[in-house]
Each structure stands twice: as structure tokens, then as C-alpha cells.
Amino acid sequence: MNKNSAASSLRFTQSPLSAAVITVLSLFCQFLNWFAFEKIGYPWWTALITPLLLCAMYHFVQLDAGGKSGYSRIFVFIFSAAVPLLLGIFLTLAMFFGAPDISTFDPEAEYRGSVPELTALYSGRFIVTSLYLCVFALIDIPVLRACDRKRRCE
After folding, report:
1. What would you report as the CA-atom Rg of the chain, rounded to the nearest whole angstrom?
2. What letter does residue 125 receive in the DSSP assignment?
3. How far apart are CA 54 and CA 43, in angstroms?
4. C-alpha separations of 3 from 34, 113, 148 in Å
């Protein structure tokens, strides 16, 4: 790694605070994606494409991880994809067992826009987006390895 690339690396280390920041930022970006989808009124098929923007952001953070940076790639994966996925699953199950009669789970129920409905809706959306990130992370492993080999050769 040359002097310029070392200076351009993110400067934080693996700590509970940086784990919390990564998780909150991941959830915020996921929320922003789905909120924009809902409010702007994109066609339904864009919900399959827009999470790829988050995957691109994940890839660029992963390019900076490892090596001489202060955090590992597995750290970024855990707190940007796995923890939000587990949080989404936990919230969805909690909402399902706590209020199974809301419109998110019961297609015959009327949507009222209540907090439990919105929580269940967005936690389900976090699951979808986090699954995108997990699948992308698996696909990204060989790409990152190739980038590492190329960087070492330079």
C-alpha cells in the first residue's frame, strides 16, 4: 500500500462504537432505500434493483477493509449485513407473535398505519435488503480477492 492509499483509508478501528455505527448506518441506508421506494412511488420491480446500490456501497467499504486498515472484512460483514438481518428477523417474529392480526401478516386486515404495522413492514424490508447484502457478500469474496492480488502486484 503506497503512502497516498494509506492516507485515504478509513481511520477507525474495531470497537463496540464502530460496530454500532456501522449497524446504525446500514439500517439507516436500508430504511432510506425503502422509504424512498414507498414515498416516490417507484414501480414494484425497482424494489429488486435499488438494494444493489447498498451492495455497491458495501463493496467499496470492503475494498478499504482488511490489510492495513483498522478493521477486518468479517467485522464489516457482521455489522453491516448479519446484525441487521438478525435484528429484522427478531423484530418480525416479535411483531408476529405480539400482533398477528395486523395487516402486514393478515391479508384480510385493513391497513391502519399503526406503529406495529410499520415496525413489522420495515423489519421485513430489512430482512430482504440484508439478504441481498449477504448474497452479494458471497459473490463479492472472489472479486475482493482478485482486487487484493492485483493490489499486491502493483
Report:
1. 18
2. H
3. 19
4. 39, 53, 17
